[in-house]
Amino acid sequence: MASISIILRRPPYGTVDASEAIRHALGGVTEDVEVKLILVDGGVNAARRSQDVSGTPFSKIEDGIKDCIDMGVEVLVDKSSMKEQYLEEIIDGVKIVNSYEIAEAVKESDTVMIF
Known about the structure:
Number of helices: 4
Radius of gyration: 13 Å
CATH superfamily: DsrEFH-like
CATH architecture: 3-Layer(aba) Sandwich
Largest sheet: 5 strands, parallel
Number of domains: 1
């Protein structure tokens, strides 16, 4: 089975990067590709629990992350980035990992995409 790691480095709102990373993750998993969605730097905020986008033109990225988990995408969040972003509460099913585990996930992937 083919595998891909999709790395999201940018915050979930203000650009299309988070939406595109999620779209590619869901597309890959529907094509029987093993997908890991790796959230680092500002991208960890996509895993923030109870996002409030009321009063904005944005859709909740949280829903896309939950869809990924439900479809079988392994969603990993960098522990040190969580600390830097003051992120404490994350979506159920997201796995907190260290930089070594992220490096291993990327190393084992056939393809890597960065957003």
